[in-house]
């Protein structure tokens, strides 16, 4: 699955940070793997409407983190992955989470409500693991 960058201009998060976070998310979810080619700067600019320097800044940051590498004349490629969950397990969990999200919406929850609940459960489980 190719990364399709989205930039929220209304939020307080700089565009280059949003782009970097989307690459990291794709790495964690297994949508991007080592050796995969990232979209060109030109492609990201045309699809998201950001300035080329913004894309370059995001890619530079990811390169400094050792996640991607630019190859002269060839493009920008994923160097290493994030996350260690088996892709099949991730797919099964995604299906269950999608079903749960549908149930939450049927119960009247909005995206912000769902995010708050998931954040609370994550925080609670982190505390439980440290005990």
UniProtKB/TrEMBL annotation:
Region forming the signal peptide: none
Record domain HTH gntR-type: where: 13-81
Family matches, as InterPro entries: Tscrpt_reg_HTH_GntR, WH-like_DNA-bd_sf, WH_DNA-bd_sf
Gene3D superfamilies: Winged helix-like DNA-binding domain superfamily/Winged helix DNA-binding domain
Keyword Transcription: yes
Domain of life: Bacteria
One of the Pfam families matching this protein, by short name: GntR
Official protein name in the record: GntR family transcriptional regulator
Organism: Amycolatopsis samaneae
